[in-house]
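pipeline/complex-builder :: batch 7 item 3
reading input block
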Amino acid sequence: MTGTLPTPISTETIARRVAVIKALAHPSRMLIAETLMKGEKCVCDLQALVGADMSTVSKHLTLMRSAGVLTCEKRGLNIYYRLACTCLGSFLRCLDELAPDSEACGTNCCD
Amino acid sequence: MTGTLPTPISTETIARRVAVIKALAHPSRMLIAETLMKGEKCVCDLQALVGADMSTVSKHLTLMRSAGVLTCEKRGLNIYYRLACTCLGSFLRCLDELAPDSEACGTNCCD
DNA sequence: AAACTACTTGGCAATATCGCCAAGCAGATG
DNA sequence: CATCTGCTTGGCGATATTGCCAAGTAGTTT
């Protein structure tokens, strides 16, 4: 169990994680994720929320779905999106506690 | 149509979260975060790990520190970086369970 | 103090992401 | 069937990210 183990994480795992993380790395997509934590919404609802062109919102949703963050279901004329990533809420709340650090250790110290 | 409720999350909160998420949204930075979960490392260690130019690694680290994901401390000739975001581990493990979804609901269905 | 070490910063080209418009498509409705 | 609705896709310019080289800095050693 102890000792020096070679990096036990594969490039594929890293890539998959990055794809999911990137699916959240945009203000509109973060807002969508936050909103969907309260329940499913159709694209038109999310468009109104985000305030961008519907095609833009649709592309955001496609990206998030491809990454596995969202799932969708068609009912009647609308397509309803919902969160697939249940662990997101607690993580985001944790992030909100995190303070940005402007202090450096090297040459770029400010005081 | 669902009820119209005013968005209870501020633009600033969204922006802060996105900054943190972006700090993880790159293969090298994800690998750095994963590695630092096991303990602090100096920049040269991380350079060897990532396999990029030291200046590149340094910029990644600066970005992560600015977002609040890392902290650093200078000891002797080296600068040691460590993870500041304690909730990252459980979130990443959760992400690893998440399956990417290639099935769509609209016109882009494949089968 | 000159040279060295460990790292950061500036600059710039290559690449990726973003967002709008226009066009397309499936299902519902007239 | 023709049209309308809700959404997706293609295309493309605008903007942001990435990574290397070169140059700079603070502390260390000789």
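note: The first strand of chain A starts at residue 41 and ends at 42.
queue -> next item
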